[in-house]
Amino acid sequence: MAKKIKLPLTEDMITELKAGDDVLLSGVLYAARDAAHKRMVEALERGEPLPFDIKGQTIYYTGPASAQPDPPPAAGWMLILPACSSGDSRE
Q1: Fewer Cβ neighbours under 10 Å: the N or C end of the chain?
Q2: Does the structural domain 3-80 have CATH classification 3.10.20.310?
């Protein structure tokens, strides 16, 4: 059964999680691809502030990931994307 977690995370929540746990997250979650992560690291290394306080926040890498199922489909590799829903009707 998936663990329901309300973001932002606390230290207690983090220590209870184990690799492979299924989780259902609700709350504010920042999503960024590799270029955004790189820009954030570079800004911090230069001592520049980020546009939001990252302390305690959840930042999720949302780049596409490729996977080849077994057996592979005739077309070859398929693209795997994360599914997210905020419950916001404007999505």
Answers
A1: N
A2: no
